[in-house]
Amino acid sequence: MKKIMILNGPNLNMLGTREPDIYGHQTLKDIEKMCHDKASELDYEIIFRQSNYEGQLVEWIQEAFKENYEGLVINAAAYTHTSVAIHDALKLLGCPVIEVHLSDPKTREEFRHFSYIESVAAHGFSGHGADGYILAIKKLKDLL
Ligand code: DQA
Fold it and tell me: What is the torsion angle, in degrees rounded to the nearest 10, for the CA atoms of residue 4, residue 48, residue 62 and residue 80?
């Protein structure tokens, strides 16, 4: 069974209560369940994680490399716009990386317009809400 890692960055543990007008009413648990349902349809094993810590996200990306994961989906949240460390870690990976954002950062404040993930991602989905995660899993299916 193909193993896919889905990583979520800071403050995404607060989905549902965090700015629902921007990020929607679904919790991260709801999104995790949606991902597991889609993955079982496609016969993928999903490892779904969230951390508020940059170094933890870097370590999980390294784990995806060492354990030969076949795809990685990442919503790096605010670290998207700041983290050279996550950018460098993603460059380790030989497998496709898909960037996801619930909102569309490019249409928001200027400090969200640049992404350190974009140049190392095979594809990105922004502004589709929680469905972006499902689109990312389906995209991996096409790529793998
Ligand atoms: C986000 C967009 C980021 O700019 C922001 O910092 C987040 C969430 C999104 O999913 O829309 O925390 O990644």
Answer: 110
